[in-house]
TrEMBL record:
Gene3D superfamilies, A to Z: Aspartate Aminotransferase, domain 1, Type I PLP-dependent aspartate aminotransferase-like (Major domain)
One GO CC annotation: cytoplasm
Organism, as annotated: Leptobacterium flavescens
Keyword Ribonucleoprotein tagged: no
Matches recorded under InterPro entries: 4pyrrol_synth_GluAld_NH2Trfase, Aminotrans_3, Aminotrans_3_PPA_site, PyrdxlP-dep_Trfase, PyrdxlP-dep_Trfase_major, PyrdxlP-dep_Trfase_small
Compartment list: Cytoplasm
A GO biological-process term: protoporphyrinogen IX biosynthetic process
NCBIfam families per UniProt: hemL, PRK00062.1
Pathway: Porphyrin-containing compound metabolism; protoporphyrin-IX biosynthesis; 5-aminolevulinate from L-glutamyl-tRNA(Glu): step 2/2
Name this polypeptide is given: Glutamate-1-semialdehyde 2,1-aminomutase
Cofactors, names only: pyridoxal 5'-phosphate
Keywords: Cytoplasm, Isomerase, Porphyrin biosynthesis, Pyridoxal phosphate
Chain's gene name: hemL
Amino acid sequence: MIYKRSSALFAEASAVIPGGVNSPVRAFKAVGGEPIFVKEAKGAYLYDEDGNRLIDYIASWGPMILGHAYEPVISAVVEKAKKGTSFGIPTEIETQIARLAVSMVPNIDKIRFVNSGTEACMSAVRLARGFTKREKIIKFAGCYHGHSDAFLIQAGSGAVTFGSPNSPGVTQGTAKDTLLARYNDLENVEQIVKANKDEIAAIIIEPVAGNMGCILPADGFLEGLRSICDREGILLIFDEVMTGFRMARGGAQELLNINADIVTFGKVIGGGLPVGAFAARDEIMNYLAPVGPVYQAGTLSGNPLAMAAGLAMLTTLNDQPEIFSNLEEKTAYLHEGIEKVLSNTTLDYQINRLGSMISVHFTDTPVVDFETAAKGNNDTFKKFFHGMLAEGIYLPPSAFESWFLNDALSYADLDKTIEAIEKTVKKL
Ligand SMILES: *Cc1c(COP(=O)(O)O)cnc(C)c1O
């Protein structure tokens, strides 16, 4: 494939945008080489600036669950745009999407819309702290909850359970309130909770992790967190920015049959426009301004274009729940195909999948947390990624990201992908 124009555009971008991108993972740092620039996309396909067609497995990192340029979403946005793009005054469509979201998701009474998943998680933590009048939170190594300070924390040294900043600019003061636990390790959580008795406001978790590849919660793990939270007066926050409206109509809460206290959304809920949201039962949500004391606001929150896109998206998913089982079947088909190909090689590999999220890790150890995800052979992944790109398959440009299937993918696309994997791994 030729990437001449992408390469020129990347050079131009790099002169005026740090690293040429507005979000780091796009820059291909984890896989080497230069990013491609997209010109347009339709259904399951991306078309780049050099005229290459690629089968897309990132779906804008999740939102495009129905494929790109999905007609009902596009026309809803176009029609709305003609009537003005922002008012800073209430609009009826905000209630319409809120009502629909509340009817789809278990265990929530009210929802507040923001502009990104980052904002949703940041606000959910503030709300949890305000509600419980406690300051610390527990997060899990390898889970991503956006780029706000409280989440950019890595494991502290030795026996200390509190984290240290993993980005310059995050203060020690912030880091000391974020405690880091191992995913799928309930005993570890128990220890941390014990050492910080009555100080923990919330445990925040991706109920199915998607930011260290796809990692499934072990049997009993989320149930265990639920009972620790109940016992200790801690709020359980499910970060469903990835899994919400993707795993099922009601997200991971529904699929895994566990209730969280606060749920955060992003990605699918905005239909490809910048939207996040957080939701809970009345008792908690009424702590928010203007009803309650916890402040949270946004000039463009509930923006009419974003709400129109989100409403069209959620309406489709609500009316056609078979989309979720179709996606699951397609992902299972891909899983089987990859398994068949890789089992005929000498490569070490693990395939993790739930619903329409799947990831391949080149390691012989089951991938259950950040540590085991980090054992994957990154050299193999890099070659695999570039081999697939050359075959016209766009995978996430990092071994630490889940692949996201979209409903526009046909079985022919999946077969083409499996063939591409066969060709690619032969050269590894
Ligand atoms: C993408 C993501 C976020 C951050 O959302 P942004 O819209 O990028 O700010 C938070 N949590 C999870 C689980 C995510 O996947």
